[in-house]
């Protein structure tokens, strides 16, 4: 039995029936990590000993007959910008290379509480800035479908780990599509929840008004199980929204009859690879076959969204990253005086992309440029939101490609930051509007997976799951497996 | 008349009286071991998220209302970005764009005139940490230490319009402000513990001009008197600079208390704080009803209390002004009055003895041991004639220092007044015998000689003799 090809709910069934122990599953995963990690490089830190201890503790609880969560004993991994108590949390940055938080993020706490077993911390673009995980301050992660290609970013390690069978599920973070785009490149499912639905306490901020933690899984059922644990109000996070969290398993039904799905024409126009477009059209036809009504809609301000997003996220990042100054934690470069210490620490500790964004953010927030750039970007953000509000008056869901192309080769875009940024153009408006959106694999093009993006109204993750589940059950296109796995 | 006019605006930072910090649950207690009252939030550790302390909003609203401000029903927090080692997050959370309170005023009394100073805004912000340098400053120290206990302490910054014209007005403004904040219970207003700090923006311009001159900002003033002196010095300095034909440089200046001068600290190159909304914190939304509920909790304020002391008890305006300048004094007065219903006598004692001793010891009322009950029973002892006014002052000093009951002090020290003719006749006989010249003077019609003789009896009885009785007995004896 290839344990690492099973989904969370399948593993959970085996555990429940006592056909296998969590320790056995965890060992299997750790062994598999040993085998493939040299090629994939999905992890910044692997915590094997801790994982086995946690697994044994869950096994004990099970043997005592305790009622356990479906995630109990399931090996997971968490992106390295989400705090884990006593375990290095680096944001894949040299500036935090040695940072060991004395606390767990709320999501970490909730998953631990559910008994999930932490295998380690996933590689990412430094401070979640990038689209290929080539901006990691440590090393590149590779795409499990083609080691010469990128896994996407910024949560590239988290997506690659699930795709390569190195973790049953992972958590990533999404500021500009950084869960959905790598999920699409790696042939797995990634969901960015509604802003405020999942607590951000313990998430190391990139751009506070846009960041959201979300799950990456192998199938829709797993997605529901993880959302059941991580969603919900947290009094420690001011941005957390107090709303009732439904049991997401109830959305695991095959039914899209009468569902009104909008196809935003702006997402099918620019730079979209014809092969990807063809796959998305195939998905549209499938949904129509199953009774959904798909119609072209317009989100007229889409073309301005990436510029606005780049300005807003850089502005917030320039402020959020100011605390890495060598005074309290992380890297400190010794210098004669305090100002030189600040400068040298930040010069050495941050990579090029991070520096680029700090400079851009500092520029757009400066008094002379504030109105012309930052305020203008906020206005665009409002227009983008209004576009969605309009469309969602009539449609239940929007369907788009996740990314204009499949995974691109390593080093192809690393020197052209704007081209790199373009790989998120279909994801970015969603972050500006704070909406929930999911990327679901739909078929392959030349051995690489294609991602389908579904966007819903705020707090309507349920509809994303229902449509995803319907597609998953009705076609064989949603479970691409990389040949790499043993 | 000077041909120049001073234009002064004050920025006052007031620490709010809360048990916990602005965005976390750390204690705000003063004087604890450095870095013992910190958590990931106030240390700005990666991933930490803060949650607004509701009490801060209540106190800030209360302060705003007491300063006649409008209160914003929808306000938020902004970040002021700059680099300094005492700033854990690399930015300070403040309210730059939408302060919670704005458009207020404060009436001050200077030279018998009431003047209205408008208040531009009062906004909530967090305190950064505190630096201690092994050398003189951060640039020439071998090591600097940071205490983050103060990081995240809740402050309101109260900004006046530049409508203050002299150091004296500035002092009056601060005293009134302090009293209001104390009365409302918004702050401890202890300058020595840094819970009230003041910076002054000072410029001068030719009388009649409506444009502002170049200003300097004065810091490091640790008493109201220092504020007054620093402003007076700075105004003179700027006038001298202009008279000499030079230009005033825009800069931050420190007040050197010992030398009595302001000194240049650093040139201000228009710092660009790159302010923008903090998206990790929820905006503050207040309802009109809630604001009115807060308004209802504001107690009688100094002006109205002062008016009451004048109108109800007939106190002189000056006395009433001083007594109501601090809630502690005003409450001391009221409490004493409950037990000894003679307002003017109490006021006299407070104005002379109590304030004299407080000033001499550079103390606040709470540091003195004397209680309103104690003062009332002392005044009763004097009224009954048990002790003289003079002895009363001695007893009061002991009460002030030791807090003992006056009757006990009088008993222990044997200070009771001697009114008994039997006890006094012996002393009077001796004084008459020993002072033949004065006796003769009196008999020849020099009325003032009796005063000297009374004094001699008082001296011989160590002040315990009842002067009235002595006077009467002496006259009887000398006119026999």
Automatic annotation (TrEMBL), chain A:
Annotated keywords: ATP-binding, Ligase, Nucleotide-binding, Protein biosynthesis, Transferase
Gene3D superfamilies: Amidase signature (AS) domain
InterPro entries: Amidase, Amidase_dom, AS_sf, GatA
GO MF assignments: ATP binding; glutaminyl-tRNA synthase (glutamine-hydrolyzing) activity; transferase activity
GO terms under biological process: translation
Pfam families, sorted: Amidase
The gene coding this protein: gatA
Amidase domain residues: 24-465
Subunit structure: Heterotrimer of A, B and C subunits.
Catalysed reactions, as listed in the record: L-glutamyl-tRNA(Gln) + L-glutamine + ATP + H2O = L-glutaminyl-tRNA(Gln) + L-glutamate + ADP + phosphate + H(+)
Residues annotated as signal peptide: none
Enzyme Commission number: 6.3.5.7
Stated name of the protein: Glutamyl-tRNA(Gln) amidotransferase subunit A
The organism's place on the tree of life at top rank: Bacteria
Similarity remark: Belongs to the amidase family. GatA subfamily.
A GO CC term attached to the entry: glutamyl-tRNA(Gln) amidotransferase complex
TrEMBL record, chain B:
Naturally occurring in which organism (per UniProt): Desulforamulus ferrireducens
Entry keyword set: ATP-binding, Ligase, Nucleotide-binding, Protein biosynthesis
EC number(s) on file: 6.3.5.-
Gene3D superfamilies in the cross-refs: 1.10.10.410, GatB domain, N-terminal subdomain
Gene (name only): gatB
GO BP: glutaminyl-tRNAGln biosynthesis via transamidation; translation
Name the record gives this protein: Aspartyl/glutamyl-tRNA(Asn/Gln) amidotransferase subunit B
SUPFAM superfamilies reported in the protein's UniProt record: GatB/YqeY motif, Glutamine synthetase/guanido kinase
Metal-binding is among the record's keywords: no
Subunit structure: Heterotrimer of A, B and C subunits.
InterPro entries referenced in this protein's UniProt entry, alphabetically: Asn/Gln-tRNA_amidoTrfase_suB/E, Asn/Gln-tRNA_Trfase_suB/E_cat, Asn/Gln_amidotransferase, Asn/Gln_tRNA_amidoTrase-B-like, GatB, GatB_C_1, GatB_Yqey_C_2, Gln-tRNA_amidoTrfase_suB_CS
Swiss-Prot/TrEMBL catalytic activity: L-glutamyl-tRNA(Gln) + L-glutamine + ATP + H2O = L-glutaminyl-tRNA(Gln) + L-glutamate + ADP + phosphate + H(+); L-aspartyl-tRNA(Asn) + L-glutamine + ATP + H2O = L-asparaginyl-tRNA(Asn) + L-glutamate + ADP + phosphate + 2 H(+)
Keyword DNA-binding: no
UniProt cross-references to SMART domains, sorted A to Z: GatB_Yqey
Transmembrane segments: none
Record-level Gene Ontology MF annotations: asparaginyl-tRNA synthase (glutamine-hydrolyzing) activity; ATP binding; glutaminyl-tRNA synthase (glutamine-hydrolyzing) activity
HAMAP family listed in its UniProt record: GatB
Stated role: Allows the formation of correctly charged Asn-tRNA(Asn) or Gln-tRNA(Gln) through the transamidation of misacylated Asp-tRNA(Asn) or Glu-tRNA(Gln) in organisms which lack either or both of asparaginyl-tRNA or glutaminyl-tRNA synthetases. The reaction takes place in the presence of glutamine and ATP through an activated phospho-Asp-tRNA(Asn) or phospho-Glu-tRNA(Gln).
Top-rank EC class of the record's enzyme: ligase
Domain Asn/Gln amidotransferase: residue ranges: 331-478
The family this protein is said to belong to: Belongs to the GatB/GatE family. GatB subfamily.
PANTHER family: GLUTAMYL-TRNA GLN AMIDOTRANSFERASE SUBUNIT B MITOCHONDRIAL AND PROKARYOTIC PET112-RELATED, GLUTAMYL-TRNA(GLN) AMIDOTRANSFERASE SUBUNIT B, MITOCHONDRIAL
């Amino acid at each position: 039995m290839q344990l690492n090809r099973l989904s969370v709910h399948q593993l959970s069934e085996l555990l429940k029936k006592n056909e296998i122990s969590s320790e056995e599953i965890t060992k299997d995963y750790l062994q598999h990590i040993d085998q493939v990690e040299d090629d994939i490089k999905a992890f910044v830190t692997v915590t094997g000993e801790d994982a086995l201890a946690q697994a044994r503790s869950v096994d004990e609880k099970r043997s005592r007959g305790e009622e356990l969560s479906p995630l109990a004993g399931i090996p997971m991994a968490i992106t390295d910008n989400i705090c884990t108590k006593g375990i290095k949390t680096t944001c894949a940055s040299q500036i935090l290379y040695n940072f060991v938080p004395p606390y767990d993020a709320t999501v970490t706490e909730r998953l631990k509480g559910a008994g999930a077993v932490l295998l380690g911390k996933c590689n990412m673009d430094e401070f979640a800035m990038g689209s290929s995980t080539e901006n990691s301050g440590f090393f590149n992660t590779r795409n499990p479908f083609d080691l010469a290609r990128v896994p996407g970013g910024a949560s590239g390690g988290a997506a690659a780990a699930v795709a390569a069978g190195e973790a049953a599920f992972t958590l990533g973070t999404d500021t500009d599509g950084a869960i959905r785009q790598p999920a699409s490149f790696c042939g797995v499912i990634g969901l960015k929840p509604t802003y405020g639905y999942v607590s951000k306490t313990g998430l190391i901020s990139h751009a506070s008004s846009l960041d959201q933690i979300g799950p990456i899984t192998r199938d829709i059922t797993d997605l529901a199980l993880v959302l059941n644990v991580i969603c919900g109000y947290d009094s420690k996070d001011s941005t957390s929204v107090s709303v009732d969290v439904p049991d997401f398993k109830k959305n695991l039904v095959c039914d899209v009859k009468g569902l009104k799905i909008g196809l935003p024409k702006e997402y099918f126009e620019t730079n979209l690879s014809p092969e990807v477009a063809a796959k998305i059209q195939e998905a549209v036809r499938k949904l129509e076959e199953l009774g959904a009504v798909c119609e072209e809609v317009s989100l007229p301000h889409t073309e301005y969204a990436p510029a606005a997003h780049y300005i807003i996220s850089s502005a917030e990042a320039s402020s959020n990253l100011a605390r890495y100054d060598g005074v309290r934690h992380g890297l400190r470069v010794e210098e004669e005086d305090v100002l030189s210490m600040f400068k040298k620490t930040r010069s050495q500790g941050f990579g090029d992309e991070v520096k680029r964004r700090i400079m851009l953010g500092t520029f757009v927030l400066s008094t002379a440029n504030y109105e012309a750039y930052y305020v203008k970007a906020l206005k665009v953000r409002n227009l983008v939101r209004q576009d969605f509000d309009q469309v969602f008056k009539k449609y239940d869901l929007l369907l788009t490609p996740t990314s204009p192309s499949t995974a691109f080769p390593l080093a192809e875009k690393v020197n052209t930051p704007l081209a790199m940024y373009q790989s998120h153009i279909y994801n970015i408006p969603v972050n500006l509007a704070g909406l929930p959106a999911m990327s679901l694999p739909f078929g392959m093009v030349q051995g690489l997976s294609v991602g389908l993006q579904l966007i819903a109204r705020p707090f309507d993750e349920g509809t994303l799951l229902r449509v995803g589940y319907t597609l998953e059950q009705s076609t064989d296109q949603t479970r691409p497996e990389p040949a790499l796995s043993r | 008349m000077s041909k120049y006019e001073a234009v002064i605006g004050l920025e006052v930072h007031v620490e709010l009286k809360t048990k916990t910090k602005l965005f976390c649950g750390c204690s705000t207690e003063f004087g604890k071991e450095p870095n013992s009252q910190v958590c990931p939030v106030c240390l700005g550790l990666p991933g930490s998220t803060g949650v607004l302390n509701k009490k801060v909003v209540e106190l800030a609203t209360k302060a705003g209302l007491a300063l006649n401000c409008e209160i914003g029903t929808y306000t938020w927090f902004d970040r002021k970005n700059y680099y300094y080692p005492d700033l854990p997050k690399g930015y300070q959370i403040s309210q730059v764009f939408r302060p919670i309170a704005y458009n207020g005023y404060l009436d001050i009394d200077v030279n018998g005139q009431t003047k209205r100073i408008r208040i531009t805004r009062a906004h909530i912000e967090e305190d950064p940490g505190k630096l201690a340098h092994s050398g003189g400053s951060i640039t020439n120290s071998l090591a600097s230490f940071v205490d983050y206990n103060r990081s995240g302490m809740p402050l309101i910054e109260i900004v006046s319009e530049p409508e203050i014209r002299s150091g004296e007005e500035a002092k009056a403004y601060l005293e009134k402000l302090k009293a209001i904040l104390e009365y409302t219970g918004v702050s401890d207003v202890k300058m020595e513990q840094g819970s009230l700090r003041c910076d002054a923006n000072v410029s001068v311009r030719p009388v009649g001009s409506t444009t502002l001159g170049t200003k300097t900002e004065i810091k490091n003033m640790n008493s109201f008197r220092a504020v007054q002196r620093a402003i007076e010095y700075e105004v003179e300095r700027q006038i001298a600079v202009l008279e000499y034909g030079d230009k005033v440089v825009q800069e931050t200046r420190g007040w050197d208390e010992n030398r009595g001068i302001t000194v240049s600290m650093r040139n201000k190159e228009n710092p660009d704080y790159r302010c923008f909304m903090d998206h990790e914190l929820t905006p503050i939304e207040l309802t009109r009803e809630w604001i009115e509920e807060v308004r209802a909790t504001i107690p009688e304020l100094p002006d109205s209390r002062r008016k009451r002391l004048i109108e109800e008890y007939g106190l002189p305006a000056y006395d009433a002004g001083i007594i109501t300048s601090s809630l502690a004094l005003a409450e001391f007065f009221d409490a004493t009055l409950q037990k000894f219903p003679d307002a003017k006598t109490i006021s006299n004692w407070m104005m002379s003895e109590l304030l004299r001793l407080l000033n001499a010891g550079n103390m606040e009322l709470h540091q003195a041991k004397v209680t309103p009950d104690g003062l009332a029973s002392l005044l009763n002892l004097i009224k009954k004639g048990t002790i003289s006014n003079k002895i009363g002052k001695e007893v009061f000093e002991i009460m002030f220092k030791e807090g003992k009951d006056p009757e006990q002090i009088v008993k222990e020290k044997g200070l009771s007044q001697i009114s008994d003719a039997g006890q006094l006749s012996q002393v009077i006989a001796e004084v008459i015998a020993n002072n033949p010249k004065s006796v003769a003077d009196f008999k020849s019609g020099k009325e003032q000689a009796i005063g000297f003789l009374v004094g001699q009896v008082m001296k011989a009885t160590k002040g315990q003799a009842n002067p009235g009785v002595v006077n009467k007995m002496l006259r009887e004896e000398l006119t026999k």
